[in-house]
# Entry
Amino acid sequence: MRNERHGERLSDEERELFLQYLHRFANHDLDLFALMQVGDPEHPAFVSFSRTPEAGIAPSAYRRP
# Structure
């Protein structure tokens, strides 16, 4: 994982904190529904959060950090 603002890798402590917040979001706030477009505007990445896997993708393809 990289910190795009500073062009450097996240430290182990920063990565762990990010994962803690992500798990908290998934457990408590996911019902708010989130769709995001992130990254370089020329080559964006689209991110969605949901309680079910995307259609056509095996649940085993998803890693749990």
